[in-house]
From TrEMBL:
The active site is at 2 (for gatase activity). PANTHER family: ASPARAGINE SYNTHETASE, ASPARAGINE SYNTHETASE (GLUTAMINE-HYDROLYZING). InterPro entries: Asn_synth_AEB, Asn_synthase, ASN_synthetase/amidase, AsnB_N, Asparagine_synth, GATase_2_dom, Ntn_hydrolases_N, Rossmann-like_a/b/a_fold. The keyword Transferase applies. Pfam families: Asn_synthase, GATase_7. It catalyses: L-aspartate + L-glutamine + ATP + H2O = L-asparagine + L-glutamate + AMP + diphosphate + H(+). Keywords: Amino-acid biosynthesis, Asparagine biosynthesis, ATP-binding, Glutamine amidotransferase, Nucleotide-binding, Transferase. This is asparagine synthase (glutamine-hydrolyzing). One of its GO terms (molecular function) is asparagine synthase (glutamine-hydrolyzing) activity. Residues 2-214 form the Glutamine amidotransferase type-2 domain.
Amino acid sequence: MCGLSGEIRFDGRLPDLAAVERMTDRLAPRGPDGRGLWSQGPAALGHRRLKIIDLTDNGAQPMADPRARLVGVFNGCVYNYRELRHELVSRGHEFYSDSDTEVVLKAYLEWGASCVEHFVGMFAFVIVEQATGRVVLGRDRLGIKPLYLVESPGRLRFASSLPALLTAGGVDTSLDPAALHHYFSWHATVPAPRTVLNGVRKLPPATVRVVEADGTYRDHCYWQPVYTRRPEHAGLTARDWTDAVLGALRTAVRRRMVADVPVGVLLSGGLDSSLIVALLADEGQCDLATFSVGFESEAGEDGDEFHYSDLMARRFGTDHHQLIVPSDRVSQALDGAVQAMSEPMMSHDVVAFHLLSEQVAKEVKVVQSGQGADEVFAGYHWYPQMARVPRHRAADAYAETYFDRPHADLARMLDPSVLPGHDVSGDFVREHMAAPGAETALDADLRLDTHVMMVDDPVKRVDNMTMDWGLEARVPFLDHELVELAAACPPGLKLADGGKGVLKAAGRRILPREVVDRPKGYFPVPAIKHMASPVLQRVREALCAPEARARGLYRQGYVDELLAAPDVHRTKRGANALWQAALLEIWLQTHGIR
């Protein structure tokens, strides 16, 4: 796991090496174990390394293959790199390291841009063909690893984080009205390729971009599961599906143990993380390090779920670590978490993940996390409602159920200069829902949540917060083969038992009943949800700052209304509307955007 950066010129000029160095240095938290730079002709690459696989300098990046005249940088992990290496050796390739990065280079040499179809893992990479000037950028199927882009006449810059690109300079930091519409409608989800800044875009998940020497490019989406029932699954019983899901999850968890350093688990005590722990125990893992975080209660709301994580730790004999965070620590940690955000993220648990990652990184470099199970296996409370909707009404039902507010409400919140003239978020959902390949309204909903919302909300959140402390988070529920299986699974089996029915059935075979049958929990951070005094003070400072007034993003009457009753105004989904507004402004100020 690492951070990558670079610049490619198409106008005959040399790349700005100082800008690439600044980007690379800004990525230092993602890769504290090594730094590398490479430049030749129109291309320059930078890299920060977190040593997980091949701990020697042979795995350093940027990595070159002099014979093939390829140079590349890579972020992530290809879990099947050993199998691919064996296959590539049988095809005549020679290796000089034990790293998965070299496997990526050799795989590209063997299969070209279609090499991504051979990878099982999470990744973002950039490969330069020195002979042709062609540059190839790739991103994993579920968008677990980020890749941000700044395109300008004659130049392309890229980096693993948006703040790294800002340090290079020359970025159009004006606000994108369509992205702001997404942010306020869709719980801070801004789908690729947009970001809230007009000048920064991101490579979509499951996409390979081939850039020619003259700057022209083509994108290819190489993967999209079909959310329909397949003929080969026609005769499967509920027990068969449970067997298949448990087997696929077992494979996914096993794959994510590939490392030359210890791998721990973020254990909330919920079904998803508990399944990971139980399956690792089944695989013979001893003294597995597990980690849980809790917060002080606020406004009568509990801030921890230690009862369940402690139960799991005792049951499977893990080396368990508990972190309790006082409310004033949340406000103190807020600015650090915002600094780590590549894009503004309003979910309450973002600070929790940042604080947890800080502590976990002192013990291990790699953890597995249960992120993604709710989207893939229909675990949220609104999915049963979607299942009752006719297919042709899927888009409207989704907006009614999931959006924070309707388009009309934005007019009284935002200044007209940043307000789109039409419902861009609703249009996005309608277009996505209308695409073929989803049999029912629920299938279309799960496809949207898994491949769009999840990528640019919870998955991005985990990557940003863990990597800010040099901690690699692996997500077995986003193993692409498991996602394909879940997509084909009959909706009724996923919705059963209050949601995630097929997963709960699997859990009952290996987990304590108390864990499987417990009420669904969330990552509670009461100090933010209920605007505890130190958090409210930081919010007031941001919204009343000269930068905020000069920006004029919000109508002043709306801000005054929120500040007059900080814990009253809620979005349709129950989020604190003041926090949503303030978080965006805090993010803009933190990253020097005026």
